[in-house]
Amino acid sequence: MNYFPMLLNIEYKTAVIVGGGHVAEQKVKALLPTKANIIVVSPEVTAQLKVYIEQGIVAWRQKYFEPSDVNDATIIFAATDKQEVNDAVEEATQHWQLLSRADAQGRVDFINPAVVRRGNLILTISTSGASPKLTRQVKEEIAQRYGDEYEPYVAFLGEARKKVLATLKGEEKKALLADLLNPQILQWTKQGEIEKCHAWLQQRLGV
Length: 207
Hints:
- By secondary structure, this protein is an alpha/beta fold.
- Helix content is 43%, strand content 15%.
- It folds into three domains: 14-112, NAD(P)-binding Rossmann-like Domain (Rossmann fold); 113-145; 150-205, no CATH class.
- The protein has eight helices and seven strands, in the order βαβαββαβββααααα.
- The strands form two sheets. It has a five-stranded parallel sheet, with helices on both faces. The chain has a two-stranded antiparallel ribbon with strand order 6-7.
- Strand 6 and strand 7 (121-125) form a beta hairpin.
- Helix 5 (150-167) packs parallel to helix 8.
- The chain is elongated, with a radius of gyration of 22 Å.
- Residues 118-144 form the Siroheme synthase central domain.
- Its EC number is 1.3.1.76.
- It catalyses: precorrin-2 + NAD(+) = sirohydrochlorin + NADH + 2 H(+).
- Keywords: NAD, Oxidoreductase, Porphyrin biosynthesis.
């Protein structure tokens, strides 16, 4: 299957996960940074899911699945180990809703890639289900290549870009936007000297 890669903004939209086991737990973990309205439908849940529920960041419908459970959902995960339940979730899903079945049977509108997050830097990896082991391997390699320092680094780049666009025009603007990728800036960030990045920018902007 040729998937179309994209990043979805599901902030404050409803995401329903049918199932309370390990697979459902992984789906919830992937959703947490998105600020979606996360609802788990299952008679039982894992210990970690209970922690999220007790923290109030996940809602739990402690029951067996019913079609009405997905009425307001934007995205739906059928994450049980029972095909008949996953079939029921698929049957209840409307054409405008996005469905992912963990058993890869029937309708699968999207799959979850492996993700490396460094603040606003989001790197995704997928083999389209061909080799989950390779996906994990590549994820580990990317995580090592792009360490935690990329979170403040990308945050600075975003702030700097706004200032450049608001201050400069024409060739000066293009030149400074290109210079923002000066390796020295990343090095300062790695060393925890982000103030040097801001000082450099102020000097280049002439303010």
